[in-house]
Structures are given as C-alpha cells and as structure tokens.
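RECORD TYPE: inverse folding
INPUT: structure tokens
STRUCTURE:
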C-alpha cells in the first residue's frame, strides 16, 4: 500500500461550538496560520448556522468548509433537518456523516449513514464517513469485525467513481473527546483493516487511493506519530480544532 497515492486531509469537527461571529474569527485565524501549507487539505466542519459566514471567511484561502450532518431527502416535512442543496448554497464542500455522537445520541444507523452518504455524493459534496468500535467491542476483541461490517454497510451500493469523493474517518468511540488516543499501531492496524475491506469491495487501486483518517483525541503532541503510519492519511480532530494555533500545529505535522 502506497501512502503517496493518497491525499492527506486534516479536518476539524467543531461539534456544537462557535457562534457565527466566533466562527468568522476562528476560520480567519486558521487560514492565516495554515497558509501555504500545501502538504494536506485543510477542512473545518462547522455547525449549520456557521457555514455561510465560515465559507465567506475561508474564500480565497486554503481552508475548506464542511457541515457535520445532512439529511437524505431533498426537501419536505423533516423538521430540524438540512438538505444537501442547503449546504451547498451556504458554501459547504464537505460533510461529516455517521459521527459516533450522531450514532450514539441521535439514532443514526448504518442504513441512514448509507442513505445520507448517497444523497451527499449525488449532490457533489465530499463525505467524511465516520466509523469505529465502542470500548466493549474492543475489549471483546471484535474491532475488526465491527469496522468491517460498518464499512460494508455504509458503502453499500456506492460506485468506485463515487468512492473517490469519500474519506473514511476511523474513530474508535472510546477515544473521542476522552483524552484517550489509540496508539499509532492500533490506529494503523484498524485503518489497514478498513483499506483491505475496501479492496475487497472494489479493487486494490480504489483502496490505495482512499484517504483514511484517524480521529480520537488527536492533538499537536501526538499527531506526527499517528500521521507517520502508512495507512493513516490524515486526522479528524474535535477539541483541538477549536484552537487555531493547536489545529495549525497538526496541519504542520501533516506536511512531512
Ligand atoms: C471528533 O469529534 O471526531 C473527535 C475525534 O473529537 P476529539 O478530537 O475531541 O476526540
């Protein structure tokens, strides 16, 4: 497997943080601190109400803006939901789908992840598809089975052409927002498992071209080692993405 075949992507997930005025400042600061760092793509996935202002602040910089979820229907009686065309018109280029917080707290399933992913791809959005095991599954020794099953179900019916617009984020749920990070070897092992499953579903070329991020308490201190692993092609970063200086250091670590 050749790492140089893949795009490295460092993406921030702001979760439910930042008002529009705070978002404007944080995007500007991130853009200034990461200017000219072309060794990776830089994405900030912001709350829905921040997308337009964030996209405006990012215009002409190397920062791309993403959302944190999207509905699979185009319009209608889905109170509280947001469609792909709304995201696009507001300025989003990326969307996170299947984050473990959506799966844990909002009833997201592999079936709805798959539907949302298909809708986002059809609309021309790039998808950051999150999956990963919970602590009990890791302790039971079934991490490989869980991530393999999620990969198969979440990608069901998606063409090899559309796969080019998907990034998979391997996010062990026990490492998200907990300060516990997977070791570089653990991250590498599971990212490699996911890549093998993708090779089986599509082919080797598709798998070798797929960006697979690690997410789970990645920060400026541990990023370089995690990113040095051959199957880890970037990071999805929660907490540390809220502080532009910390996030920029992770972008720096991805320049190698
Ligand atoms: C995330 O929200 O996807 C995440 C990995 O969060 P944190 O970096 O805070 O663990």
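DESIGNED SEQUENCE:
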């Amino acid at each position: 497997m050749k790492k140089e075949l893949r795009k490295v992507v460092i993406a921030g997930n702001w979760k439910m943080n930042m008002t529009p005025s705070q978002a404007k400042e944080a995007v500007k600061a991130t853009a200034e601190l990461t200017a000219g760092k072309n060794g990776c793509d830089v994405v900030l996935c912001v709350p829905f109400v921040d997308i337009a202002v964030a996209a405006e602040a990012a215009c002409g910089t190397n920062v791309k803006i993403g959302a944190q979820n999207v509905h699979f229907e185009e319009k209608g009686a889905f109170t509280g939901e947001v469609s792909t065309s709304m995201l696009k018109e507001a300025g989003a280029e990326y969307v996170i789908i299947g984050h473990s917080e959506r799966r844990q707290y909002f009833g997201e399933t592999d079936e709805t992840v798959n539907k949302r992913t298909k809708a986002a791809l059809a609309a021309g959005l790039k998808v950051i598809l999150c999956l990963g095991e919970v602590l009990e599954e890791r302790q039971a020794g079934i991490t490989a089975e869980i991530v393999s099953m999620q990969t198969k179900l979440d990608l069901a019916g998606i063409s090899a052409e559309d796969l080019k617009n998907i990034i998979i984020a391997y996010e062990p749920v026990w490492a998200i927002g907990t300060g516990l990070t997977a070791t570089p070897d653990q991250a590498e092992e599971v990212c490699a498992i996911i890549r093998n499953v993708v090779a089986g579903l599509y082919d080797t070329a598709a798998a070798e071209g797929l960006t697979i991020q690690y997410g789970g308490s990645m920060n400026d201190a541990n990023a370089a080692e995690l990113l040095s692993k051959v199957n880890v092609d970037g990071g999805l970063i929660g907490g540390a993405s809220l502080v532009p200086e910390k996030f920029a250091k992770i972008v720096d670590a991805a320049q190698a």
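NOTES: Residues 43 and 64 are 5 Å apart (CA to CA).
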